Queue: 2 jobs
Job 1
Amino acid sequence: MLKVKNLKVGYDNVPVIFDVSFEVREKEVVSIVGSNGAGKSTILRTVSGLLKPMNGEIEFFGERIDGLRPNKIVERGISHVPEGRHVFGKLSIKDNLMMGAYIIKSEAEKNKKLSEVYEIFPKLKERENQKAETLSGGEQQMLAIARGLMSNPKLLMVDEMSLGLAPLMVETVMQALKYVSSTGLTVLLVEQKVQEALEIADRGYVIQNGRMVIEGTGEELMETDIVKKAYLGL
Amino acid sequence: MLGQIISNGLLMGFIYSLVAVGLTLTWGVMDITNFAHGEMLMLGMYSAFWMFQLYSIDPLLSIPISAAVIFVLGILIYKLIIKKVLGGTGLTALLATFGLSMFLKNLVQYLWTPNYRYINGAIVTDNKIVIGNIILGMPQVVAAIGSIAMTLIVIYFMNKTKTGKAIQATALNRDTASLMGIDTGKIYAITFGLSGACVGVAGALMSSFFPIYPQSGALYSILAFVIVALGGFGNIKGALFAGLIIGLTEAVGGYFLGTQFKYALVFLIYLIVIQVRPKGLFGW
Ligand SMILES: Nc1ncnc2c1ncn2[C@@H]1O[C@H](COP(=O)(O)OP(=O)(O)OP(=O)(O)O)[C@@H](O)[C@H]1O
Ligand SMILES: [Mg+2]
C-alpha cells in the first residue's frame, strides 16, 4: 500500500537520507530500525508531508503523495504519531483525541472512534477531562497513539514509541499496537529498540547513516550478523 | 469623586481589553508580532466613520460591518505579508508589520487627510446614565458592554468550537497540528481575521467618542502590548483582567499624579508585575 522509491531527503539541502526504498503491504507490521541519527524520523516526516523529498517517489495505494501537504496526506489515510509524543499539553485528553479526529466530519463517527480507543486505553477515559500534560510519559505515549487512531487511518506510523518508557510500559504499548494491528490496521514502526520492534514485525528494514542496509522478516533480521553485532550486543 | 474615576477607568479598561484580546490572538497565541494591530483598529474606526458619513449608518449598527471589513483585512495581512515571512526569524515579521503600520498610516493620511474626524449625532451621543453621584457617558457604557460581549464571544469560540481548539493546537505545536489533518495555514489566516474582527468591533465602538485620525490607533496598540504581556501571553482572560487593571491605573493615576504621569504609572505597574511574575498575571 505504501511504496517509497529512491527517496533522498535533507535539511537545508544537506541530504541525510540517500536513495532509500521500502514498502509496506496491507495488514503488515513493518519496522524500520537503526541507531540515533540514522534517519528514521526523517523518513516518516517525509511520508507524512512535513518534509519535501529532494528526490524519489512516495506512492500510497498507487497514487503519488509526495508533495502533498500534511493535512491532505492525513485525509488519504496515513496517521503519523511523532517522536516525543507531542500531545497538546494544555488541551484536555478528550480534546487531544478530538483533534486526532479533526478530518472526520460526522459527530456520530467521531464518538464511535472515541469509544473504540477508550476501550483499548481505558486509562484515558478515566481522565478524559484532565489536561494532557498531567499524564505520565507512558500515558502520554498511549494518548499519542490513541490520537493517531482517531482519524481512522489505513496506515499508522509510530516513531520511537518506546522512547523514555520503562520496560513494563514498553510491553504495554507494544501489546496495544499488536491489538490494533490484529484489527486489520497496517502499522509502520520506527525504533531504536531493535529487539522489541523486530519481535512484533512481520518484516523489517535496518537503516544506517541514511541508507537501508538489509531487509527481511523479523526473525530473519534478528539472525543476521549486522543486527546481532550492532544492535543486540551479541 | 473616586467612584467616578474608578468607573471611568473600568469603562476604558474594557475597551483596552478587547484591543488586547485581538493582539493576544496573534502575538500571544501565534507568536507573531503584529505592529500594525493599532492601524487595524484605526481602520476599524474609519470604517465606522465612513459608514456614518456616506450612508448615515449609526456606528452601533456598523459594528458587524467594520468587524467584517477588518476581519478580511486581517486575513489579507496574513496572506500577503505574514505568510511570506513566517519561515524567517522573528525580526523579519516584526520589521514587515512595522513597515505595514507606517504604510497604512501614510496611506490613510494621503487619502483622508491628517485631520481629526468626529462622528456627531450617533445614537449614543450626549446620553448619560446617572447612578447616585456617578455620571456615566452612554458612549462609554455601550462601548464597555460591546467589548465585554465580543471578548466573551472570542473566549467561547476559542474554547468550545472545533476551529478554536484547532487554533490552540496549532499554537501549541504547528507540525503536530498539521499531522492531525489541520490546515495550519488556514488556521493562521482565521486567527488574523479574528484578531482583526476584535479591533473592528473596538474601532466601531470607540468611533462615537474618540477623534478619528491616522495616528488614532497607535496609543491603544502600545497599551495592548503591555496588557498582553501583563495578562500572560496568549491568555485571553488574562488580557481581559489586565486591560481593566491598566484602565484603572490610568484613571486613578491620572487623577492623583496628573495626566502627564498616567502612562508612566501604567508602565511602572507593568515592570513591577513582570518582576514578580515574569510570565504575566495569568501566564502559563
Ligand atoms: N531539523 C533538522 N535540521 C538539520 N538536521 C537535522 C534535523 N533533524 C534531523 N537532522 C539530522 O538528520 C539526521 C537524521 O535524523 P533523524 O532524526 O531522522 O534520525 P533518527 O534515526 O530518527 O534518530 P533518533 O533515533 O535519534 O530519533 C541526523 O544526522 C540529524 O542530525
Ligand atoms: Mg527519530
Note: The radius of gyration of chain A is 17 Å.
Job 2
Amino acid sequence: MKLVIITGFLGSGKTTLLLALLKDLSSDGGRNLVVLENEVGEVGIDGAYLETHGLKVKELYSGCVCCQLAGSLVTTLSELREALDPECVFLETSGLANIQNIMGTMEKYCEVVGPDEILTIALLDIERSELIFEHDIPVIQNQVKMADVLALNKTDTGEAGEAETAAAELERMNPDAFVVPMSAAEGENLAPILDRLREWI
Amino acid sequence: MDIEDFVPISFEGRVALRGPGGPQECLKAFLDNLLGALVDAGCTAVGHVKGMMTGGGGEPLFFSITTLENNLRFQGGPLGDSDTYTLTMNVIVAGLEERVLTKTFSTVLRGHFNV
Ligand SMILES: Nc1nc2c(ncn2[C@@H]2O[C@H](COP(=O)(O)OP(=O)(O)OP(=O)(O)O)[C@@H](O)[C@H]2O)c(=O)[nH]1
Ligand SMILES: [Mg+2]
C-alpha cells in the first residue's frame, strides 16, 4: 500500500492542497484513495472541512502521529489496509509533526507500507518565509531536508521574484527534492505535483 | 524559536450573537479583536487560528488566520439564520503561556458572544 505524507508547518496549506490533489486524482475514476487526518488540537476541524467537499476521512486527533499517536498511526494504517485495501493513503500530519520521527516509526513498525512506498510532500508557506529561512526551527528544517517534493505555497501572496528566490534557496538546502512554487488555494501550478503523483501511484 | 514555543488551546461550544450584524460579521469582529488582544498580551507568532461555525440550517463556515497582521480567510458558508451557533476553534500561537492564552481568548470571546 502506498502512502503520501503531506506535511508542513501549521497553516502552510496542507488541507487546501490535499483537497485540490484528491479532487483532481478522483476525476481519473476508479481510484481507491483514503485520507487520514492528524491534528494537534483537541477538536478536529480539517476532517469536517474535507467532508463538506465529499471526501471520506479517518481522523487521529488530540496528539501528533510523530510522538503520542505513533502507535495509533501504525495500527490505523493496518486497519485501513484490511478494511478498504486502498491503492494509496494520503496522510496529513499535524503542523507540528517531526517528519524524521514519523519516518522512523514507519520503518521500524509499519508492515503494510514498505520503505519505497512513501512519498513525502512538504509545504512551505512563502507568506511566512521567515519561519523557513530565519528562525531555524528544527521541525521545519527537517521537513525541507527529508521531503521528496517541496511545495512552496501561497505564491499569490508574495512579491514579484520572491518565489524564485525562495525556490532557489530550497533547492540549495535539499538538492534531491523536487521544488514546486504553487498556490493551493488558487490552483496554480499544481500540475507538476499531480503528474508526479500519477506516475508514482 | 522552536516548536515548543507554540501553545495550543481549543474551544467548542454554543454561542449566541451579541452585536448587530450576522454571524460572519460577528466572527470577523471577534477575530480582529482576538488578534489584537493576543499581540497586546505578547504573542510573537501565529501558528494557526482556525475554526468553524455551524448552525441555522445553513452550510458550515470555516475561517483561518496564519499571520499576526491577521490575514483572515473564510471558506464555505453561508450559515443559516439563528440565535445560536456552534463554534469550534483551535488556536496555536507562540509567545504566550497557556494560562494567558486561555484567559485572553475567553475574555475576547465573551465580549462578542454570549457563551
Ligand atoms: N493566499 C493563499 N492562502 C492559502 C493558500 N493555500 C492555503 N491558503 C490558506 O491558508 C490557510 C491555512 O490553510 P490550511 O490548508 O488549513 O493549512 P494547513 O497546513 O492544513 O493547517 P493546519 O492543518 O492547521 O496545520 C487557509 O486560510 C487557506 O485558505 C494559497 O495558495 N494562497
Ligand atoms: Mg490542515
Note: The mean pLDDT of chain B is 95.
